[in-house]
Amino acid sequence: MSDARNPCDPSVGPPLAGGPQLIGETAGRQAAALQESAGLRPSNDSPLNDSRCDEFLLLNRLPARAAHRTLRAWWDAQTWDFRTESGWDYERLAEGLAAFLSANEAVAGVPLLRSLEVRRGRDKDGQPEKFDLFFKPGDVVCLVGPTGAGKSRLLADIECLAQGDTPTGRTVLLDGCAPDPDSRFTGEGKIVAQITQNMNFVMDLAVAEFLRMHAESRALAAPEAAMQRVLEAAIRMAGEPFGPETPLTQLSGGQSRALMIADAAFLSPKPVVLIDEIENAGVDRTRALEFFVDQGKIVLLSTHDPLLALSGARRLVIRNGAVQMVIEPSPQEEANRLHLAALDRRLAGLRERIRLGGRLDEPWETLLGVGTNAIEQQPLSPGTSRANLGSQ
Amino acid sequence: MKLVTVAGPPSSGKTAVILKALAHLQREGRRVGVVKFDCLSSHDADLFRTADIPVITGLSGNFCPDHYFITNIEDCAAWGRRLDLDLLVSESAGLCNRCAPHIRGHLAVCVLDHLAGVHTPRKIGPMLKTADVVLVTKGDIVSQAEREVFAFRVRQVNARARLLFVNGITGQGSWELSRLFDGAPDDAPLTGGRLRFSVPAAVCSYCLGETEIGEDHQHGTVRKIQIEEASRV
Ligand SMILES: Nc1nc2c(ncn2[C@@H]2O[C@H](COP(=O)(O)OP(=O)(O)O)[C@@H](O)[C@H]2O)c(=O)[nH]1
Ligand SMILES: [Mg+2]
Ligand SMILES: [Zn+2]
Ligand SMILES: [Zn+2]
Q1: The model's pTM
Q2: Whose CA is nearest to atom 18 of ligand 1?
Q3: Number of CB pairs < 8 Å for A and B?
Q4: Is the ipTM of this complex over 0.85?
Q5: Is B14 touching ligand 1 by the criterion CB < 6 Å?
Q6: Which of A19, A150, A371, B96 could hold A321 in an S-S bridge, CB 3.0 to 4.6 Å?
C-alpha cells in the first residue's frame, strides 16, 4: 500500500506511523497530565458572575452567590466553620469550577467528517484482505456474514481508529489522514455512535426532560428546537405515538428504539452511526435510514434483514475475519427492494390491526396484497450515494 | 515497575476491565500483577489467578479501604518488584466516597458504570475528581444519548481526565486502556510520595470498631449535624 495519495500535512506524519510512536506520544501527554495533577496550580482568582457559576454552586449544594463577583470574594465571605469543615478548600473549589465551565466549551465544536477510510488488513489466516473501504457522509453500508465472521472486529477497528495495531492490521483514516493519536484515547474523540438491540433507557426521566439534558450537554444554540425535531422524528418512526411527558422507562421497545435513532441522528455529534440488528424493533426502518442520510451520517448496518440489506449503497460480505466481497445492489435487487418495502408496509399495517384488536381474516391475496400492483415508488433518499471502492 | 490505582464503586466493572486490559499486555509479553483491596471478602483473586495473573488480596475489615490501602501499598509494590512485574494494578472498591487511593505521580483510574445513572458523577468524590483516566462501563445496555450525557457530566467534575468507554464483557475499549496502562509512569517513587487527596481528619470510636449507639460511646473527633428547628405554628 502506498502513501502517494495521502493528502495529509506532512507535519501530521504518515498515516501508518506505527504503534511505538503513538504510545510514546500518549505516554508523554499522560506524564504531563500527571505532573499537572501532582502539584497545586497557582490559584488565581476566578470570576463568579453568571448563571453557569450559580448552577455550579447549586449542584454542589454550596451557599448561593450574593453580591460577590469572584470566587475568592465568595469564599472569604463564608463562615470559618464552613471553610474548614465543608470538605472544600479554595484550590479545589477553583478547580471544580474551572472543570464545570470547561465541560461546556469542550462540546461546542463538532468536527465535520468528509471521509472515512479503512485500509485493508488481513484475515484470520494472515492472508491479505482484498478491499480498501471508503465511506462518505450519507453512505449506508451493510455488513453481512455469520456470527464470528469478523463483523464486530471491523466495527471495533473503526471504533478504536485502528492504526495497523489491532489483530486485523487494518488502518483507519479520517479525511485521508491518520487520526490525532490522542483522540483515540478519549471517549469524546470517538467518532462512532452505537445503537443495538440490547440498549435501553435507564434514566428515570420524561422524554422531554431527557432530551433537554442531552441538548444541554451539546451546548446547542437552540436546544428547544432540536428537542422538538427529535421528538417529531421519533414519533413518525415509532408508529405508536408518545408525548414529551411520557417517562422514558414506559416507552415500548419500538418507541425507545425510535427515540434512540432520532436522537442519534439529530442530537448526537458522532458522524458515524453503527446499528446492530434492529430488524424486529417495530420501527419504520426505511424512514430511520432517511433521517441518518439526511443528516449526513455514515451508517454501518449489521443486518441480515433483506429490506435493510438492499437499502444500503453496498453490502460488505465478511468471512474469516476479512471483507471477502463487496456487493452493490443490481437493478433487479433495486426493483425487489421496492417490493420488499411494500411488503414491509403491509406487515406494519397488519401489526397495527392486531394492536387495535382487529382480525386478519381476509383471503391471503388481499391481506398481504401480494401479486397486486401495490408498490409505490419510494426511493431511499436522493442523497444516498454509492461510494467508490478502493482498487482491488 | 508501573503502579496504577484503579478505584470505583462496587460492581462497576473494575475487575472485568482490568482483566481485559491486562490480557492485551500479557499477549505482548508484559509481566503484570494485581493487588485487590476489599472490605470483607473478595472473589476477584480467583478470576485473576485463572487468567495467570499473580494477585494478593488485602481485606481492610473495619478500616476505610482507602486508608488501609495507603498503609499497605508500599509492601504490595515491593512484592510486585520481587516478582519482577512490569505493571502492578491496584483495585479498590472505594466504598467510602470521602477518600481516594490515587497517588501523585502514578496513573490514577476511576471506574464508573452507566447503570448507576447520570447523577453519579456528581456524587462521587475525589476518586473521580483526582483521576487521570475515567472509565465508563456497561455502555452496551444504555442508550447512546445517555452515554453522551454521562460523559458530559463527568467532564463537569473532572475536565482533565481522559474519558474512555470500556465494555467489561466484550472488551471493547480495553485495548485503548492497555495502551494507557503501558504508558503509565515507570518507577515513580512511592515512599515519601503523596496522596492526591487527604484522608479524613476525624478518627472516632466507630472508626475503631464501636457498634453501640449513644453519646457515651462517642469518643475522638465527632462532628454533630446541625438541625434548624422548624418553628411551630
Ligand atoms: N453488560 C455489562 N456488564 C458488565 C460490564 N462490565 C462489567 N460487567 C458486569 O458487571 C458485574 C460486576 O463486574 P466486576 O468487574 O466484578 O465489578 P467490580 O466489583 O467493580 O470489580 C459483572 O457481572 C460483570 O460481568 C459491561 O461493560 N457491560
Ligand atoms: Mg472487583
Ligand atoms: Zn475513607
Ligand atoms: Zn469514624
Answers
A1: 0.77
A2: B11
A3: 148
A4: no
A5: yes
A6: A150
